[in-house]
Amino acid sequence: MVRTQVQIPDELYAKAKRLAEQREISLAELARRGLEYMLSVYPTTEGLVPNWQPPQPRHLGWKGLSDEELKEEAQRSTAEENWQR
After folding, report:
1. Most buried one in 3, 15, 45, 56, CB count within 10 A?
2. 84: part of which helix (H) or strand (E)?
3. DSSP assignment of 10-71, as one string?
4. Beta carbons within 10 angstroms of residue 10's beta carbon
5. According to the model, what pLDDT value does residue 69 have?
6. Distance of CA 43 to CAs 6, 12, 38, 46, 54, Å?
């Protein structure tokens, strides 16, 4: 068995300590069970394609506006709009 050290917030430690006492197990056993649960819930990376990248984002700009016009609209402030009126 490997011995390790972790840092957790005081509030989390207090809650975990109380739960361990209620279950009549050590804090270490509670941590082991928590890790085992998390590893059973989250899928492993085994069998995944190496160097996988997420798909490239699609162009979802405003209809009728070029990328440059969209950028200008996004950067325009309400002060500029009021000044131009």
Report:
1. 15
2. helix 78-84
3. HHHHHHHHHHHHHHT--HHHHHHHHHHHHHHHSPPSTTPPTT--PPPPP--PPTT--HHHHH
4. 7
5. 81
6. 23, 25, 9, 9, 17
Is residue 39 within 8 Å of 45, Cβ to Cβ? no
Q: Residue 74 belongs to what H/E stretch?
A: helix 67-75
pLDDT-derived band at 67, boundaries 50, 70, 90: confident
How far are the Cα atoms of 26, 53, 69, 74, 82 from residue 7, in angstroms, in the given order?
Answer: 17, 32, 49, 42, 52
**What pTM, to 2 d.p., does this model score?**
0.51
Contact yes or no for 20/26 (Cβ under 8 A): yes
Mean of pLDDT over the chain: 82
- Return all residues near 29 (Cβ < 8 A) that are at least 6 apart: 20
Ramachandran bin of 56, using left for φ above 0, alpha for ψ from -120 to 50, beta for the remaining angles:
beta
